[in-house]
Amino acid sequence: MNRTVLFVNHKKSQCGVYEFGKNVGAVLLRSKKYNFIYTECSSLNELKADIVKNNPNVIIYNYTSSTMPWAADKIYRGIYKSNIININIPQIGIIHETTQDVSYRATAYRSKFLFGKGINLSNSLFDFYIAPDPTLLLKNNLVYKTGRLIPPYKNNFEAPEVPTIGSFGFGTPKKGFEKIVQLVQREFNEAIIRFNIPFADFGDKDGVGAKEIAKRCNALVNKSGIKLYISHDFLDHGEILDFLAKNTINVFLYEDANGRGLSSVIDSALAVQRPIAISESSMFRHITDASPSICVTKNNLKTIIENGITPLLKYYSEWTPDNLLWDYERILDSIFYKQNNLENHKKNITSTLYFKLNKLLLRPSKSFTWLRSSKDGVVDDMQVVNSASYNPIHISARDSLNRILDNDARNLYKPAIDKITELVPKTISKKIPEANVQQAFVFDTVWRYVPFYKNPKILCIGSYEDTASMSLIKMGLKVEEIDPALNYSLQEYVTKPSTIKESYNIIFSTSVIEHDKDDELFIKCVSDLLAPGGVFVMTCDYKDGWVPGDIKPDVDFRFYTKNDLENRLLSLMKNCELVDKPQWDCPNPDFILGKYKYTFATFVLKKYTKG
Questions:
Q1: CB 3.0 to 4.6 Å from 509: which of 264, 329, 461, 486, for a disulfide?
Q2: CATH tag, 164-317
Q3: May I ask the CATH class of domain 4-149+324-362?
Q4: Domain spans of the chain?
Q5: Which helix (H) or strand (E) holds 542?
Q6: 177 within 8 A of 210, measured Cβ to Cβ
Q7: pTM here?
Q8: What angle do CA 586, 405, 506 make, to 5 degrees?
Q9: Tell me: domain 407-607, CATH 1.20.1630.10, correct?
């Protein structure tokens, strides 16, 4: 029988968080894997009644402190004290106002679900958290993330003849409505500006803020050809989409608000498939990578209008209802796996060992050092270098792309190591120098194959801290990245609804496979994703003659051998062959890591072209 998931939203109100919960809840009800039940509560007693009625296996709260004040610090304490209900199930909170720092510091309530005795080891409200922020790095095992949800909508309205600039939002501070008026007047002599600024139940219930914004905006209009129309009606979900659909472009110029989550206005603006212009506010960080840029600091409104929705296309395929449902189902799969793992272990171990197991399973990881951006949010090692150039290393007739990466290879690929050092100096400085030959080989080999494809579709498996991937992106290549620290595992990605099988021209992975417990499934997934005529480039930790039981680093599940590469793994790659004759003989490995002596090997193959 499918497990029951209670999805708790607050009662209907003029509030973006409520609309978010309503829309997500409607998607989750389509699940065939879990029995989702949507409910709206305004008190702890209403929640108790829903728990008694539905007997859920887990509860998800669409939570903010302002919309669910009754829940803060009461969900567990109130129910335990009352002795009416004993919640011995995972409690999951959706966190809207999240940042990287907030997500890292999130801790578990350590309820009876975690410790079996109701031991309270922190003041946190939830056991796990879901952040609807696709930009988040997953540094904390308690925190999961999802993509956004673009509401389904068909725009049947003709584009207006007179440039019409629209925006909407509650009348709370720093929304930038005044800046929109000023920007439009700088660029246009004739235009229509349309604002919908309703009163907010949470923050501007009496409408004082909304009316004051309208007054200031009207005072700024000084061109006869500029017409400004402002409404304060609260529009329901369908009405706000119609409002946005009638505009030439929808513009959002929030002032930066560090410490805030993502703005949900973008979800609605994307739905109507009209151009969007934004400020560089951190609340729009999930779409600032649109290309050409939609930021008004980099392109003017006329240019953004001319570019149309082309910069937004990648979001349409990613933030779909199917993908969001998949996100929630895989998150629940993971949480129930952790729950079962703890239940199985706690039966036969002492409370001290049980406590340590929980710490290992659920503690935030401090091992992530990837320098994609600096602490203040200024991009450093990931800023694209448009003028970058690189010529692949000359490979002689006696050399092979399937080889051992020893000292000879370090000398051969030194130009590639130097290029990576130039491109991502901060990240590579944290690496073991002798191991950088792997990233150098991958960087050089991928770059070597790029010219063979027109607009190649490229996938990196295990891109977190991978200097090869980071360098290729800085060189201007579009590389799709998957990594559990960024989004999901390879095995998960293959099951994602939007994933297209046999669509990638180049797939690469640098020293990842030895860390995957099921390496055969790893290889089968690569085979499923690789397009006919495509190439797969991989490196791995290698020691010929190694057998299970021999010593190896704790982070590795295995060392690879000549037989693994030549027979076991190759046999799993459907319709594939090595790109050249391999040279994997290595009687004397020259890489030393503590007490371990081994080397690195490459694995480069190509899939047959159909027909």
A1: 461
A2: 3.40.50.2000
A3: alpha beta
A4: 4-149+324-362, 164-317, 407-607
A5: strand 530-542
A6: no
A7: 0.84
A8: 125
A9: no
Q: Angle 348-354-358 (CA atoms, 0-180°, nearest 5)?
A: 135
The CB-based long-range contact list for 24-32 (8 Å cut-off, 24+ gap) reads 24/62, 24/132, 24/149, 24/324, 25/62, 27/149, 27/321, 27/324, 27/325, 28/325, 28/328, 30/321, 30/325, 31/325, 31/328, 31/329, 32/2
Same topology between domain 4-149+324-362 and domain 164-317? yes
Q: Which structure tokens are listed for 579?
A: 């790109």
List of residues 6+ apart from 561 with CB closer than 8 A: 542, 543, 544, 545, 546
Q: Taking the alpha carbons of 176, 182, 183, 184 in that order, is the dihedral positive or negative?
A: positive
Q: Which residue has the tokens 């793992």?
A: 341
DSSP 561: -
Q: What is the pLDDT of residues 120-147, one digit of tens each?
A: 334 467 889 999 999 998 888 889 999 9
Peptide bond into 151 cis (omega under 30): no
Angstrom CA distances, 67 to 16, 29, 39, 71, 315, stand at 10, 22, 15, 9, 29
Q: What is the largest CA-CA distance in the chain?
A: 83
Q: How far is the C-alpha of 590 from the C-alpha of 55, rounded, in Å?
A: 60
Tens of pLDDT along 334-390? 999 887 776 554 444 444 443 333 433 444 333 333 334 433 333 355 555 544 689
CB of 481 closer than 8 Å to CB of 508: no
The token duo for 344 is 């199985």
Tokens standing for residue 211 = 């009316």
Q: Which amino acid would we find at residue 227?
A: K
* Of residues 477 and 83, more confidently modeled: 477
Could you tell me the strand order of the sheet in which 249-252 lies?
A: 226-231, 191-196, 164-168, 249-252, 276-278
